[in-house]
Amino acid sequence: MEAVFFDMDGLLVDSERLWFEVESEVMERLGGDWSAHDQEQLVGGSMERTVAYMLARSGNTRIAPEEVARLLDEGMLSRLHTQVPIMPGAKDLLVSLREEGVPRGLVTASQPKIMRAVLDGLDEALFDVTVCAGDVVRNKPHPDPYLTAARLLAVDPPRCTALEDSPNGVASAEAAGMTVVAVPSVVPIAPAPRRRVVSSLTEVDVAWLKSLHL
Q: 189 and 99 share a domain?
């Protein structure tokens, strides 16, 4: 195993519930309502996809997509400045990988400012590289984010593991040729070839991750 890559929202940090709060607030301003079903359609996706979905869902034609994106960013940043809820087992696994000398990357579909807020509340030194929405033309579920991260570390994608919580993220990592460990957060994910499914990162350790590549 040459490297391990971590998704951010819903995998590294418990931010999907924060996104739901923010999306609900913004949708109210758009004149619509928001449900868990709506969030399921967007988990692991890009800001552009979220904004387009919200505008179509609300039927609001008076507000520009850029303004919706700004409202979403501001709502999320205000929350992350007061709390960065780390998922159980995430930091312990990162520390163990660092101690074992395994390269680590953060690969997120979020905007740079959101990633920066999370890293400010965590420990950026836990990652050797980071890739976010500002670093690729095509975001998840395309393979570009994971291929970019692998290129930055000069590692072979099939010899890497990606930790993901969403179908979009899983599709991205698998399209890049990586082994995937899924920890579903909002949407169920089924096991598949080269894909393991666990209920929490507390079930994952370095030895087990290495065994997936034997």
A: yes
The answer on 122 and 68 residing in a single domain is no
**110 backbone φψ class: left, alpha, beta (φ>0; ψ -120 to 50):** beta
Q: Domain range spanning residue 177? A: 3-14+84-211
Q: Decide if 51 contacts 69 (C-beta within 8 A).
A: yes
144 is catalytic: no
Question: Which residue type occupies 38?
Answer: D
Indicate the length of the chain as a whole number.
Answer: 214
Q: Any idea what the CATH number is for the domain that residue 151 is in?
A: 3.40.50.1000
pLDDT of amino acid 17: 87
Non-local CB neighbours of 175 within 8 Å, separated by 6+ positions: 141, 142, 143, 146
Residues paired with residue 13 on neighbouring β-strands, in sequence order:
9, 86
Q: What number of CA atoms fall less than 13 Å from residue 130's CA on the CB side?
A: 20
Residues 134 and 175 in one domain: yes
Q: pLDDT per residue over 55-87, tens digit each?
A: 999 999 999 999 999 999 999 999 988 888 899
Q: Catalytic site residue 156?
A: no
What pLDDT, in 10s, does the model give residues 181-210?
Answer: 999 988 899 999 999 999 999 999 999 999
Say yes or no: 113 and 65 in one domain: no
**86: DSSP letter:** B
